[in-house]
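Model it.
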Amino acid sequence: MEHLKLAQEIIQYCGGKDNITQAWNCITRLRFHLKDREKADVKAIQALDGVLGAQFQGDQFQVIIGNEVLKVFEGVKKELGDLVVSSEEKPKKNKKRENPINVLFGVISGIFNPILPAITGAGIIKGILALLIFLKMLNPESDNYFVLDMISNATYYFLPFLVAFSAGKKFGVNEHLSATLAGIIMYPAFVNLSGQGISTVKFLFMNIPVMDYNSTVIPIILGVLLLSIVYKFIDRFIPSFLKLIVTPVASLLVTAPVVLVFIAPLGSYVGKYVAAFFISLFGVAGPVAGMLMGGLMSVIVITGMHYAFFPSTFDGLGGVGYDILLLPMSIVSNMGQCGAVLGAAFKIKDKKMKSIAFSSALSALFGITEPAIYGVNLKYKKPFYAALTGGAVGGAIYGIFHVKAYAFSIPGITALPTYLKEGELNNFIWACIGVGASFITAFIITMLLPLEGKEKEKETDKISQDHEGQMVKIPVAAPMTGKAVGLDQVPDKMFAEGILGKGIAIIPDEGIVKAPFQGQVKMIAPTKHAIGLISDRGINAVIHIGIDTVNLQGKGFEVLVKEDQWVEKGEPLMKVDLDFIKENHLNPITPIIVTNSDEYVNVLDIPMDMAQAGTSEVLIVFQ
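Modeled.
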């Protein structure tokens, strides 16, 4: 699919341009802030060719693309332009529902994602320099080394400027004014005072601590946050014709002294002590801490919690010169995902999924694990558990030998040179051993375990196969009793045109929704109008009760099962008040969609005048 077309469809299913207040991207994901999250059709986006997954994480809506994210984001930019709207324009009801921790992670990710290319690029150059010196191919006293070292260190030294600009954009204050604040705390004459033995500078009645803020991030984040508050407060009282002059001047005069005296020193101490805490933690309980963090890092990344470690990581790199937590634990975790998805690739029989698994393994090798996690390992479950185990083994090795990363880089195979430091070859050796142990452990476990989570066989859902080599046919029963009709009769373009996938629709006579096959409940819509299941044979199906019934906000629906619950074919899932739906002038027609239709040879619908819920076969999936 063309990248522009995919971008247009994603925007459409996000509720349109008018529902998007901000859009940005990271290495593998598109990220959106939406005015009304109910307008986002998550399942429709997940079904798009080129989309690996979609989810709400805190106040963000994330669309997982994988390696093509930059190309798709170019399409998003063409459609939305420089769409950046302050968070104040979001509905208040959304603010009340936001978890403060999720908001914090969202702020940190919004600040660091835009500057990751500069940081990772500089980190890779530092790693290459270390490798060239180790191989005696570059003299550290040469001019060539001096220039390359300058290129690699500039990003880290002037990191407060990059963070300030990004934080200004995130907090809704002028980015250039924010960068000016970074210039104030990093003013050369001020920084040089520390080398002259001067500890404080007197300003009016206040003492300003003399500190070097290069490579720090917490001081400037807190400073720009204060600047945004002060700027918006002052701006409210200044006449329009004076705003351009008075507001920025007054904001800097109020903010800068407070930042220099209180905020920046406090932020610097917090960053140093947090980094010191993690270093001491690994010093005291290295193997246990490494095993837990290495094993759980993939889960932490999925939830977005890894962004909480970014400030301490950069403070550690700028302070003690290395990171012992985020970067080392991420690389062993990623290599575990790589080993697991490669093992799955050898075992998967479906040609398309096998191809996806092999390409995902290559991406994971270079540190991009979303295609492996969302496209393969989570789908088959056991490879994901194998990856966690591999990460735990590698993490334990890193914890025992206190493996350190000396520069920030994407945690893949190309990051290994960043574990090199002159005179410390053992660190690099154990880094390689930990990565190899993580990869091999995950690969072997995946090869030993069956891919299928549950291998139940029931007469009511038996796969027919007359002889070896014949196409496999998997029947799917009607979810409700009533007339079975083609999707083209559904008054909703998303269903009628098969955008979500192939399937059939039921015009219900009875208000009982039953399981169309044996499998697991994977999703229940918060408004109860839709339920998603996955069969023991891997069929992903969504039952959507009625059209626009999301507007009922759960009224008229009684859910009888829970998410992750295993259900048998014909087991009741939900009670529906059909009369209530009709009284609200809504159509009760119920599509059942195979959302992973493209993974099968064909999905054949079987219309009939009267289909019985849980027994009448209305779909045949050909594998």
